[in-house]
Write a structure and sequence with these properties.
The complex is a heterodimer of chains A (about 350) and B (about 350).
Chain A (H helix, E strand, L loop, with lengths): L7 H7 L6 H6 L6 E13 L4 H6 L5 E13 L3 E5 L6 H8 L7 E6 L2 E2 L5 H10 E4 L13 H12 L5 H14 L18 H13 L5 E5 L7 H18 L2 E6 L2 H7 L2 E6 L2 E7 H6 L4 H8 L50 E4 L2 E3 L7
Parallel strand pairs in A: 3-8, 3-9, 6-7, 7-8
Antiparallel strand pairs in A: 1-2, 1-4, 4-5, 9-10, 10-12, 11-12
Helix pairs in contact in A: 6-7, 6-8, 7-8
Chain B lengths: L2 H20 L7 E12 L2 E13 L4 E5 L6 H9 L6 E10 L2 E2 L5 H7 L4 E4 L3 H4 L6 H13 L3 H15 L15 H13 L5 E5 L7 H18 L2 E6 L2 H7 L2 E6 L2 E7 H6 L4 H8 L49 E4 L2 E3 L2 H4 L3
Parallel strand pairs in B: 3-8, 3-9, 6-7, 7-8
Antiparallel strand pairs in B: 1-2, 1-4, 4-5, 9-10, 10-12, 11-12
Helix pairs in contact in B: 5-6, 5-7, 6-7, 7-8
The chains are: A alpha/beta (about 350), B alpha/beta (about 350).
């Protein structure tokens, strides 16, 4: 838990384990593991009124991410899938240190992200970028496309000349699929469609040639007819430029379409993780099975049985005892109320956390 | 009775008789015939909906689908005459239960709205009044249309909460105290408040989580069966339409490009646009492949193109498509397609 001593500034001054920018520059991904998240915990304190805080000593927390561990391999697309409130966005943001973890470790190329000094963090953010859901609100309407894409270069002071800057901006814009790039440079966001704006966001994220991009619902606000091109672009950049993507989505079918591995999250936990095709064709956790069963299929003749879960995701302040999914689980047994299920290996690198696996 | 009152009464009787005579014969519960709706803009009229026709039978569900800007919502709002000020129905008829809504006055429409046709809006958070108790908002149309007191209306509201699966304890909650799913259920309760014959759902599940979407679609399907409701689902999500509707209408650039039963549309898609649109959805039960988006943008509806509106984006177009505007062709009974190639059985 975060104490006053554990602030980033305090860490920088006193902590000998703080990671300097030079360490980051020298680090490499060993065995292809780009991120190693270990027992990560992100709790947000609830601020109660004065009276309540005097009367009760118990402090309450929103347990957004509740002890999760996983790895992200270099050059893969890892999808974090789950309903709203499952902690997928918090996980992604914490990996970029946009949120402070309250426990556990995030190792980026073997270095603990939570121990980065502010100058290391500055260098780190060049390597780790984020794309937001809404391309209408996440770019400045008063800037030209050139300015939007060039801003990361200016902030990070990475180009030596105007010429180089222009070249890199043009390269990023055309790689994001806006071709010819010179036609778009001096346009404003309002002149572009939603899909084109999202491409601008992607160009802004890739212009620094990052190792990893966290894409937070990048196509949720786009029309069906154009979202596939954005997804294709992500796959293309992964293949050609080796960009690792952490693809956050609520839509399992989109995750299935482009990701290499899927992590299904529920109420702050990863309930199932593994290779995408394996998880979708052989789901082991009842929550994953339910999610897959309710994906609408564009075929009226295929009458599939829907497993519709009752109720809604519980409040992440009061997490149910034992297996946190047991109140909604169609297969729950008595033991589920008491035992928090550990992750079980299904095969390969497919894990699921359910007591009833292998019965 | 004074002679004056007598004449008034007879006049009234004549009026009701006249109304009875006026009952128009038409197919189904709702028969939309060649509906055309335009929006006035500085640059000219936006031809948002052009000659759209479809029929909804009692108890049937019809899906209106297409990309944003294809006119699906405008078509639905034209039925209720809820268009913004610059919008108007230029021509065509909206025949509902023996009356032509397109010719009805605003006062006449107020008797139809909610009492006979109601609508579920997309964002329940925006459609509900944030500072009024949800239950009271639902009671309002009941008080207005049925002439009940608030107390009597609240009894009905509690029944409705049971029907849509929200605890009766929540009737006095304001919208922000309800979860997204509950708000959408409250919207459905409101739509059902006056026992309408037809409910229009404008993207009723779009802003919801997958599991909540499944719950809401399941609820709508159950209520339709129990209350024998007709339902129009407006959605950009074809797969939702495939799972919930009996019939479908695919719109593009303000026109119907394909219509028929959902089996017609999904298992025998004939228009190139419908085919591309269906392919755009990842289907986890099939082989994984990366499908391209549909290239290009829909045409400008201020000056619609002379030929087929989809021609510039079409992957099977022929020379005549750019100049010749295709008519709807019946390719099999009840299955209509607006494409020149359909005539040749492609």
């Amino acid at each position: 838990m975060a104490t006053t001593k554990d602030t980033p500034a305090a860490r920088e001054q006193g902590d000998k384990s703080a990671v300097k920018a030079s360490d980051l520059a020298a680090a490499t991904a060993k065995d292809g593991v780009l991120f190693d998240v270990r027992d990560l915990e992100v709790y947000f304190p609830i601020h109660e009124g004065f009276f309540k805080s005097m009367v009760s000593t118990e402090k309450k927390f929103v347990k957004a991410v509740d002890h999760i561990s996983f790895q992200v391999m270099q050059g893969e697309i890892l999808a974090l899938v789950g309903e709203s409130g499952c902690g997928k966005t918090t996980t992604g943001r914490t990996m970029l240190r946009l949120e402070e973890p309250t426990g556990g470790h995030i190792l980026y190329k073997g270095l603990p992200v939570e121990k980065f000094t502010s100058s290391t963090l500055h260098a780190y953010r060049r390597k780790a970028q984020i794309i937001f859901q809404d391309p209408y609100n996440s770019i400045n309407p008063k800037q030209t496309i050139f300015d939007i894409v060039a801003e990361p270069l200016e902030v990070n002071n990475v180009t030596s000349s105007e010429r180089e800057k222009e070249d890199r901006v043009i390269k990023a814009i055309s790689e994001a699929g806006l071709r010819p790039a010179t036609e778009y440079l001096y346009r404003y966001p309002h002149e572009l469609s939603g899909g084109q704006r999202q491409r601008v966001c992607i160009a802004g994220a890739t212009v620094l040639e990052p190792d990893v991009i966290v894409a937070d619902e990048p196509v949720a606000s786009l029309d069906v007819s154009i979202r596939n091109d954005i997804l294709k672009l992500m796959v293309e950049q992964k293949e050609k430029m080796g960009v690792t993507y952490i693809f956050i989505t609520h839509d399992l079918s989109l995750a299935w379409a482009i990701s290499d591995r899927i992590a299904v999250m529920y109420l702050g936990r990863i309930v199932e993780i593994g290779e995408t095709l394996e998880v979708v064709s052989n789901p082991q956790h009842p929550y994953t099975r339910a999610l897959i069963s309710v994906i609408p299929v564009p075929d009226p003749l295929a009458k599939r049985e829907h497993v519709i879960l009752k109720g809604e995701t519980p409040n992440p302040v009061d997490i149910p005892s034992g297996c946190r999914f047991h109140p909604r689980c169609p297969d729950a047994i008595d033991a589920c109320k008491e035992t928090d299920p550990p992750e079980k290996l299904i095969g390969g690198d497919h894990y699921a956390a359910c007591l009833r696996i292998g019965e | 009775m004074s002679p004056k009152a007598k004449t008034k009464a007879s006049e009234k009787k004549a009026k009701t008789d006249k109304k009875a005579v006026e009952r128009i014969e038409h197919a189904g519960l709702l028969d939309v015939r060649e509906l055309t709706t335009h929006f006035k803009l500085g640059a000219g009229d936006v031809k948002a909906v052009t000659k759209v026709s479809f029929v909804v039978e009692p108890g049937e569900s019809l899906g209106l689908a297409g990309e944003s800007g294809c006119g699906k919502t405008t078509a639905a709002l034209s039925i209720l005459k809820l268009l913004p000020e610059n919008g108007r129905i230029v021509s065509g008829d909206v025949l509902f239960d023996g009356r032509n809504l397109a010719k009805r006055t605003e006062y006449g429409m107020s008797k139809i709205r909610w009492k006979e046709i109601s609508i579920i809006f997309q964002g329940a958070m925006n459609a509900l009044n944030p500072v009024q108790e949800t239950g009271k908002q639902i009671a309002e149309p009941i008080q207005l249309h049925e002439g009940l007191s608030e107390k009597q209306a609240m009894v009905r509201v509690r029944e409705l909460y049971d029907l849509v699966g929200v605890s009766q304890k929540r009737v006095m909650d304001v919208p922000h105290q309800l979860s997204g799913g509950m708000r959408q259920r409250a919207m459905i309760a409101m739509a059902l408040a006056c026992n309408p014959k037809l409910v229009i759902g404008d993207e009723p599940t779009t802003a919801l989580d997958v599991m909540v979407q499944a719950q809401i679609l399941d609820l709508i399907a159950r209520l339709r069966k129990e209350l024998h409701l007709s339902f129009i689902l407006i959605s950009h999500d074809l797969s939702v339409m495939a799972e919930t509707c009996d019939k479908g209408v695919i719109m593009y650039a303000g026109e119907v490009v394909e219509s028929g039963t959902t089996t017609n549309i999904f298992n025998n898609a004939t228009h190139p646009y419908t085919r591309l649109l269906i392919k755009a959805f990842p289907n986890i039960h099939e082989k994984r492949e990366m499908v391209s988006s549909i290239k290009g943008d829909p045409p400008n509806l201020i000056n619609p193109p002379a030929g087929c509106g989809f021609c510039p984006r079409c992957d099977v177009r022929i020379a005549s498509c750019a100049t010749e505007h295709p008519e709807l062709i019946e390719v099999e009974p009840g299955h209509f397609v607006r494409c020149v190639l359909a005539r040749q059985g492609v």
